Amino acid sequence: MVYKAVMQGEKLRKGPWYEEEDKQLITFVTILGDRKWDYLARVSGPYDSGGIKRCGKSCRLRWLNYLRPNIKHGDISIEEEQIILQLHEQWGNKWARIARSLPGRTDNEIKNYWRTHLRRKIMQAREQENLQCAREDGKQDFLFQKVDFDVQTYEAGEHKPVDDTSGTSNTCSDALGFSSSAVTNSPYDVRFFDWDYNCTESCISYTARNSDDNDVWGWSDSIWDMN
DNA sequence: AACTAGTACAACCGCATCGGT
DNA sequence: GACCGATGCGGTTGTACTAGT
């Protein structure tokens, strides 16, 4: 058996978990609880006597992200997606905190989902937005009389126009429901910031052009589904 | 069919924080 | 209060899978 051969030839395993390892881990967590991971890994004993050849940290991660009860496996729903977006906007990359608001979802899952799905969608939405901005270049002079962007205020985390008398939101990131604090909280978000910063000079508010729609989360259908 | 590029996700790593001594 | 091991968290990497050529 490949599994046995591998297990017997190693001291402390890394990499993907085998089904047998999962079963062992579940057994030991049931007996010892899900707190003392190093202890659990140690007292489980050598592989030959049914032990787990993993460090406590690895056991903990496997349990929390995959094996523990009530974990939801499968696609993240539209509702969950909107909650993630909303909370990320609010808290930034606090994945564990966000995960606590989504029963059955793990911080790792949310983090991965953000990176692979939402980040790309936002980029696409913004690119589309930018294209539209470029096409409407001729109208910009007129619009910038209403939206006067203050870079210092933006960088200070107060992402607002100097003159908001039009009563509409402003800039591309506001249109997407992202504050600068959330946008600048991570390496990959910094790229949003750079992009957004560049675009603010030439970009027109989404909501300014869609002033009837003030529901921040109502854009999921219209902006997300750009394909 | 073979290769390549892109995507998704599980797992690892390093650092911060917590809790016991 | 200082130290040290355990735990938690966020960023990153590795790899399997899929689609395109």
From TrEMBL:
Myb-like domain segment(s): 9-67, 68-118
Pfam families with a match to the protein in the record: Myb_DNA-binding
Ranges where the HTH myb-type domain occurs: 9-67, 68-122
Domain of life according to the entry: Eukaryota
Gene3D superfamilies per the UniProt record, alphabetical: Homeodomain-like
InterPro entries in UniProt: EOBI/EOBII-like_plant, Homeodomain-like_sf, Myb_dom, SANT/Myb
GO cellular component: nucleus
Keywords: DNA-binding, Nucleus, Repeat, Transcription, Transcription regulation
GO molecular-function terms, A-Z: DNA-binding transcription factor activity; sequence-specific DNA binding
Cellular localisation: Nucleus
TM stretches of this protein: none
CDD domains according to UniProt: SANT
Database matches in PANTHER family: MYB TRANSCRIPTION FACTOR-RELATED-RELATED, TRANSCRIPTION FACTOR MYB27
Protein name per Swiss-Prot or TrEMBL: MYB transcription factor
Species name: Acer yangbiense
Lineage, uppermost ranks: Eukaryota, Viridiplantae, Streptophyta, Embryophyta, Tracheophyta
